[in-house]
Amino acid sequence: MFGDLFEEDYSSVSNDHYGKGKKLKTKALEPPAPREFTNLSGIRNQGGTCYLNSLLQTLHFTPEFREALFSLGPEELGSLEDKDKPDAKVRIIPLQLQRLFAQLLLLDQEAASTTDLTDSFGWTSDEEMRQHDVQELNRILFSALETSLVGTSGHDLINRLYHGTIVNQIVCKECKNVSEKQEDFLDLTVAVRNVSGLEDALWNMYVEEEVFDYDNLYHCGTCDRLVKAAKSAKLRKLPPFLTFSLLRFNFDFVKCERYKETSCYTFPLRINLKPFCEQSELDDLEYMYDLFSVIIHKGGCYGGHYHVYIKDVDHLGNWQFQEDKSNPDVNLEDLQNEEIDDPLMILKAVLLQEESNLIPVDQLGQKLLKKIGISWNKKYRKQYGPLRKFLQLHSQIFLLSSDESTVSLLKDCSLQTESDIRRNDQQLLKTLTSEPPGLNDRPSCPHWFDVNDSQVQPIKEEDIEQQFQGKESAYMLFYRKSQLQRPPEARANPRYRVPCHLLNEMDAANIELQIKRAECDSTNNNFELHLHLGPYYHFFNGALHPVVSQTESMWDLTFDKRKTLGDLRQSIFQLLEFWEGDMVLSVAKFVPAGLHVYQTLDGDHLTLCEIEIADGEDIFVWNGVEVGGIQIPAGSDCEPLLLNVLHPATSSEEEQCQQLIDSPYVFPSNAEIGSVFTACAIPDGVILVNSAESVGEESWTTIPKEDLKKTFREQGLRNGSSILIQDSNDGNSLLTKRGKWITSVNEVDWLQVKNLCQLDSEEEQVKISATLNTVVFDIRIKAIKELKLMKELAEDSCLRPIDRDGKLLCPVPDNYTLKEAELKMGSSLGLCPGKAPTSSQLFLFFAVGSDVQPGMEMEIIVEETISVRDCLKVMLEKSGLSGDAWHLRKMDWCYEAGEALWEEDAALKELMLSSGDTLLLIEGKLPPLGFLKVPIWWYQPRGTLHHWKSHQDQTNCTFSQGGVWRANSIQDAPSDAHAEVSLRYLGDVEISEDATLGELKSQAMTLPSFSEFSIPSPAFLRAWTVESRRPGRLLRVHYQRLREYKLGQRTEICLEPLQKEENLGPQHVLLRTQMRLPGKRAYALPVDLVWDTARGWTAGSLRHRVADFYSLPVEKIEIAKYLPEKFEWLPVPSWNQQITKRKKKKKQDNLQGAPYHLKDGDTIGIKNLLVEDDDDFSTVRDDIGREKQKAFALGRKKRKPFVCGAATSPLLQRCLPAPVDQKLLSPSTSGASDSTGPTLLLQVLARFLVSARCGHGLRALLCHEQRGRSIAGQASALVTRSVARPPRLARTWPHHRCQPADTLAPTLEPRHHLYTKID
């Protein structure tokens, strides 16, 4: 319990165990919320630390403890920055307490975190989730703090504030000899059982005597015999702060179980300890203590929750109730009356109401309580002393009797007439009687708060009485001496006595919190809108469709949802400078038929939240009437429905035959069902609707003729519903009494089973009749009989589905139905030897290496509980391989090696592997868990020395002898000179994820290939991630751990040499700036510029930074970002410029957004307007690049289409190296050889497969064409055989998903280089 906090040796001073056993804490995505109206901060619960939070809040609201801790400076305690240094002497616990108290005082957050503090305790996550006893924690924490402060000026902090002594005495009745024993205490433990309250318990402990007599005599040392004696205990020394621990938990020896005392146990707000002390000669004020904290336990003896009632001594919080805030003007004049707090006026008013003006002093206190609702002791004693003493001090007004038992007013003491006194005092008493006690904010009114972990709420003083008894009752009481007075400057001043270094830290943290909250507020209130522009759409087949492509017709706009619809309309007007006429904004949605327009947005004064615009909403921008000259139906009533209409086919003699044609049709929801006849050009007939609920079932219901005038929506039809049109005179269909339709058309109700057991059989395949509920076992047995095979196969065979490529898939369990096995009617199954896997087994494919040809995988059946290590051994044994330098990877959807199976001891079931998955045996041992194997590259930006260029190959982006990686252009495509990148492979580094970036650089410098570079230290290296064969993300912080960068197992790092050390912060952006040469269309060599974006990513901020860097007036420069893929320069406007160019998503007030997307490493061109005043940023090289792009695009358009079925796809035409005669590709051409066309086609398919990285999609495309089906396997094998990838480039290839031809075309740009060698 409490982890290392129990250890009281000096090890808690150092940081040897700092953070030991801790798990990584997940950082919050959003900044913490600011403080509530109380202006006090709570403490977050780590899972079970409510007891710790309550104790820490009590210590925090003990100003003397807090300020004594603050008085210890770094010269005594050390610094947290030095905690990792081995020789540094850092006292972590007091430093973390200081920091926590400063956060509670000054940091503007709803709740502080105790993570760093519990780390200093040496607690693990298990300790943070386990609840302990707060009384025990109080003693252990004080002990650990005393140990940590040994050797400092605060070594006696705990003793000075909390240490007291008790003296136990035994007095001999014979010789009066006194035997004493003194005990020290930091807190007093008092009984609860059979005791009415705290004062009663103290009376039993320190007033009553225990008598030794009769059979229980005491042996007196002086008398040297057994005598009668009396034993007693007294408080000898009282500390400034007194803590009482209540023994709420006891043990029932009868029931043998623990229980909690929930009986009533009272405790006063102010207590006089004089009767319980050894010395009672001092004034009563010396023994007065005021309650200032009550730790409360809610629950039973085996669990519960802690919170604390705390008195705000320094008035740091806002003690105002919600009802006070709602009625701030109630009795305002009365509450501001200064006479309310004058006890002299109140006592005079009470005595004037008595006929004889004479009253006993005891009754005077009672009448005062009755009139104002609060006793003298609670309201005035702290400031004015006891009531009798107050009356004695004002003898010119009050007359006390000789025995001080009665009091009266002197007749000649009035300062004004008696009538005036009575009138004023009656008004005063009326005010006091009507005023609820405890609701004002006067100095004499105590401010109490309920601090419940993160929540802080004000409470009234009388609420404390609710904690006397019950399951939620007081558990610890904290009192402070009444004479302890706080200085006036500490009142409502949270910065009082806080050290300067903590003040600066908290001020900086508050600024950072404000920035994060502003960013988070902007992020949370921004959402994406998809703008669909009317001029780019046409109305076709009942819905809107793009004229060109979805990309061209839809623009994404990021907008603040707190702005109004009018602001959105104005922004779109500025975005579309070509727009003329009215602009109507309507909510649109994609339906299966296309894009449909729903309601029109009205109310320009309403915010987007008020009109309920959602994130990702589709907005159609049009004139509100027509699109392309066609009036557009809008609204949910006319939503288009995509229906499947089945109707009999018509022969050439216009006779209907038995074959059914399934055609999709689009109808408005409010159209009549009878309009189906018109759409299908059928004069008359019977309409039937498939009313089956589940997929795969059919239940046709006829629609009566009188219902044909109902709409599709009224009939309950949805998208995808099926409609059958049957001739009313057709005899091939029957209408039953229930309205069900039974068709005579032959449906597929069979499965084809092939004999793959390599046994002689009369039949190679048979058709087995089945339904969706047929069990696979029955099909297998029936197939064995019809194939006339041996009966022994019934015990040792299985059925395996066969895909379109002829590959055998995972065996189907015998106990599955066809529906459960997801087998469709008409599917092909293979009858194979061997049993199917059981429910606890997995059927896996596996292969050796990553260059796997389809159909060449091996198969294995293993238990799903087998570990990865054992599975690897079995696969190696079956493959005939040996050694332990192998690991497993799961094949991904691109038929490539995916993520490795890192956890070798984990079961396959735990890794979510399922039957049918393919695993790859890859040579090479994985790094240990928590380690990274990082390839290191050397990066030299353009314009600096390239002394290894002579070693590079002349082929497209391949490795040379020197390991240089150059990203050049493909043949027939323009080169990308501005984005030219040289990367040289240095080697691999295996390093822990907990290592820092600096340690990675240091380890990289030990590689043999690094020896030819003269780098003085890791600080002279800049690290980038490698993305798409180029530097991607900049890794900034030298001491940040690699785990925090979230690099992943496939990350590669490139290192760039620096001329001097740099220390980039999170707000810094690194840009490559180039000054334009006057009179030339060229630029000087790039120079690195660091831009601080702390004040925003605005164009004005960047322009000022560039102007300062080049010592030019800001109004005399123009800057532009270079877009290497387009060979274009995008000008960055000045602050007051309004950008309204076409296709700009919004105002350019944030360079992080579109169209700039500014990031580290971008090139910025600078033009000096003092020597050159034009708008052209381009260079001669840019002109050449654009011309080559145009020529390349034009050449692709001129290529003729193929005649071959698969080759006619426009998706494949882009892969041709040059225009080719169609006859060479047509298999039916007599003038070509049998192999020329298919061979050239295979080369084209190979080029496409490599560029698109989508083998499965290509095979599917080929299988859709009858002529291409015979060469699909050849194409796949040729591509697998012809692709020769460099060993270090496999990870950085661009991956493309299978897409339609019109959407994949933009991905085949010249910048995507092909690593292909066509035979």
TrEMBL record:
<keyword id="KW-0378">Hydrolase</keyword>
<dbReference type="Pfam" id="PF25822">
    <property type="entry name" value="UBL_USP40"/>
</dbReference>
<protein>
    <recommendedName>
        <fullName>Ubiquitin carboxyl-terminal hydrolase 40</fullName>
        <ecNumber>3.4.19.12</ecNumber>
    </recommendedName>
</protein>
<dbReference type="InterPro" id="IPR001394">
    <property type="entry name" value="Peptidase_C19_UCH"/>
</dbReference>
<dbReference type="InterPro" id="IPR057763">
    <property type="entry name" value="UBL_USP40"/>
</dbReference>
<feature type="domain" description="USP">
    <location>
        <begin position="41"/>
        <end position="482"/>
    </location>
</feature>
<dbReference type="GO" id="GO:0005829">
    <property type="term" value="C:cytosol"/>
</dbReference>
<keyword id="KW-0788">Thiol protease</keyword>
<dbReference type="Pfam" id="PF00443">
    <property type="entry name" value="UCH"/>
</dbReference>
<dbReference type="GO" id="GO:0006508">
    <property type="term" value="P:proteolysis"/>
</dbReference>
<dbReference type="InterPro" id="IPR028889">
    <property type="entry name" value="USP"/>
</dbReference>
<dbReference type="InterPro" id="IPR050164">
    <property type="entry name" value="Peptidase_C19"/>
</dbReference>
<dbReference type="GO" id="GO:0004843">
    <property type="term" value="F:cysteine-type deubiquitinase activity"/>
</dbReference>
<dbReference type="GO" id="GO:0005634">
    <property type="term" value="C:nucleus"/>
</dbReference>
<comment type="similarity">
    <text>Belongs to the peptidase C19 family.</text>
</comment>
<dbReference type="InterPro" id="IPR018200">
    <property type="entry name" value="USP_CS"/>
</dbReference>
<keyword id="KW-0833">Ubl conjugation pathway</keyword>
<keyword id="KW-0645">Protease</keyword>
<dbReference type="InterPro" id="IPR038765">
    <property type="entry name" value="Papain-like_cys_pep_sf"/>
</dbReference>
<dbReference type="GO" id="GO:0016579">
    <property type="term" value="P:protein deubiquitination"/>
</dbReference>
